[in-house]
Amino acid sequence: MSPASSGGGQAPALRGQISKPSTCERSILLATRNPAKEAKLRWLLNGLSFAFATPREYPSVAEPEEDGTTHRHVAAKKALFWSERASGLAIASDGGARVPALGVAWDSLLTRRAAGIDVEDRDRADHLLGLTRGLKGAQRSVVWVEGLALARGGELLASWEVEGALGRLVERYDPALIRGGFWMGGLLYLPRFGKVYAQLDPSELERADICWNELRRRVRAYFKAA
Fold this sequence. Notes:
Layout: E1 4-5, E2 27-30, H1 35-45, E3 51-53, H2 71-86, E4 89-98, H3 121-131, E5 141-152, E6 155-169, E7 188-190, E8 195-196, H4 202-208, H5 210-225
Parallel strand pairs: 2-3, 2-4
Antiparallel strand pairs: 1-6, 4-5, 5-6, 6-7, 7-8
Helix pairs in contact: 1-5
């Protein structure tokens, strides 16, 4: 399945998204404390001559509430928040798993929080597999949705949302694969590779991550056109 774009309503946070960044900017804050997501954001921008900063440089600043109505809105809210705190350029993402067979019993916006706020990644994995107990074959299919946003000094510059089929949920998982800040990676079996996401090597990851590949293409085109 090719990645599909979606807009996402008329939230105030999305005003000004056609603005262009200054070509003299060379520092950007990667708006996440999650190591797996930080690595993805670095990958999006590698080779564009940015110096990277992270929220670790602002230890007293708490994370903003993730209460948008789409992943794009949530990413925009995070980018706006951190671009104000850093008084500069920030990039943020927000993603989640959509499990069509679960219908309203599962919300991709709550992928990380569905099992509770202060829980371990294995609790999150157990919660999702508990919901899918009894589902078989294609019923266990997962579609990944990822939103991305750029902001500068409290002004939204651009935002995107893409989605694409990722794999199928396993029925049992190896606890050793629930690691690195992306717990879902230990649950997703990718038939074309014959292994779960967390077992993919770097070249396989680049081929598997169709959402991130599409976002990389878009964000790099955006900066090169600035």
